[in-house]
Specification:
This protein is an alpha+beta fold. It has four helices and 14 strands. Helix content is 14%, strand content 36%. Strands 2, 4, 8, 9, 13 and 14 form a six-stranded mixed β-sheet that branches. It is globular and about 55 Å long. The termini are close together.
Length: 221
Amino acid sequence: MKKKTLTALCLSAALLTSLALPAHAEINLVPQDLSAAPTIPTASLQRLSWQPVDTSRPQSISLSQSGTQLDVSGITGPVAAFSLPASQGELTVTLSSEVAHNQVFAPNVLVLDENLRPAAWFPSRFFTYQQPGVMSADRLEGVMKLTPALGQQKIYLLVFTTAQDLGQTTTLVDPAKAYARGTGHAVPDIPDPVARHGVDGKIKLKVSTSSASSILVGPLF
């Protein structure tokens, strides 16, 4: 009984901690309120093809209307399903969604334990706009730190967007403005481009491991 109580307390405490964002992003605290996440029948989750993630290299996946979809309230368009190793300590997961042709996929991420039970929830507001770099495009990006509970072999990430997200947009930084700021020149007074949110897009997942701890992803019992 003591073991069960300790596990429950660890999970509750972990879910109340702040979530790390990339160093170049503003701090954005997202409470782990799973009541706001869509309710997905376990049978529907079991039918998905979960793509194993290789922690040694980034992985990319393109989403389109012809891709895998879930007929579930709160989810619109295609989904991406990833399987992550859960026996290597803390997982630092960086998820990016690239802007292309002034359109971007606004990701939401539901984290599930090895029994496909919801454990953590990252709504689209967690993934913030990042300007392009030397090796990266305009994108929405967030960093999730997850600590699988002892004894688990896998955890799962379900990535999707919602009807509410499709009604929103992301304001980008005009390349001329970015260049001017970077070179110390006067910033031109021109409008920034706006990317609409769509059901198509390209997401990239990068996973690294460590022995630290943050959000415990595991069963209460």
